[in-house]
Amino acid sequence: MQEQIDNILYFSQKLNVLLIENNNDIKLINIFRELFFNLDYKNSLDAFAILKTKQIDLIIVNIENENDIIFLKEIKELNKSIPIMVISNFDNSNYLKDCLLIGVNAYILNPINEKQLHQEVLRTIQEIKLRHTQTNTVHKLTHALTLAKEYELAINESNILSRANLSGRITYVNDMFCQVSGYSKDELLGKKHNIIRHPDTPDSVFRSLWNHITKGKIWKGVVKNRNKNGKSYWVNTTIIPIKDKFDNVVEFMAIRHNLSELFSLHKELEDTQREIIYKMGEVGETRSKETGHHVKRVAQYSKDLALLYGLKKEEADILFTASPMHDIGKVGIPDHILKKPGKLTPEEFDIMKTHAEIGYNILKGSQREILKAAAIISLTHHEKYDGSGYPKGTKGEDIHIYGRITAIADVFDALGSNRVYKKAWEDEKIFKLLEEGKGKHFDPELIELFMTNKNIFLETRKKYQD
Question: Which of 419, 413, 406, 296 is nearest to 356 (CA)?
Fold first, then answer.
């Protein structure tokens, strides 16, 4: 590790680095003090004054909330050429995507993995050096190319490298390129980069890329590739047109950083979040002696109905994950009411109805997209289309679509299941009630879709039967 630090200090000794940190995090400040000779740290308010008066080569921003994303955009607009590294407390992939779209050069999660940090810092420094070489005068260009070769060992250890000729055919790849792509050097040399192109990426992206670099401009972006075995991987890519002393492009150098592990980590975290949400939904059901299969069925009914309605797959997936939490508020209902085998009194039913707002209040403070959706579902799934539902008496399309969909899914499953207070209804009777509730209890368009495609929902019920 000390060798890495020494390399960073050697390459960064002439760089002016600005760390933007609002909480005076001494530990974070000391980490970067160890890596940079010329480190200045400021809060967000003072940072703009520094950027307007002093030459800064690298900005490091510690983001802690959504406002910091807006702040990043403002910094980038102020000076688009300054590289930015982000230290983030957020494991949500949306933050990563937002930062990449803004044009940050590196995204590092807290708590910091120092080995990863050193690699990212070294990579970013090397990009700065390479960019500087392009802006030098003609008589320094040859020296810059020679200097780039001196960095080859360090670059090879922390990046996926390739070079291509003016026809786009590969003339050089390093070992990391071979490792991630699954191809040998012999299989790659002389081929075009479409050998690793993933079919999910539109041709228009590569046409735009090629048009950009053939004009001598640096291109940056996140690209989805596919290795020899067909497995997908993501890379943060910088393609630099290399020019001769006459400013003519002679070849292209591509520097890539593998994001697949980071994307995989985000997916794992999101999957864990979904599992926790699902289990919490089961808790709400088992307290009232209902089964975990109820939440499975409601989740699948909701997703299928959302897709039939025309919601995007991403929204349908959110609904699928969040809908198991629709009755989480039941954890706040007393057992003598929740588990009562007979009909509730009006007073008891008033208490039972509070589970909608209890669930909403449990979830409403979350900044997670799925938990926000779960809060909406909890609050609205007992509202009725004619405004006679609870807890707010919301009417028609003023009821969130998530609530309108989950209402149908929940009622369909509840009527078709045995409960402590009733036996399961026959299908004919259930479908009759749904038809009679069209425009009263339920969104008429959703009921039409449900009835037209009832076999989809019956198949799900059969798959997850109690």
Answer: 406
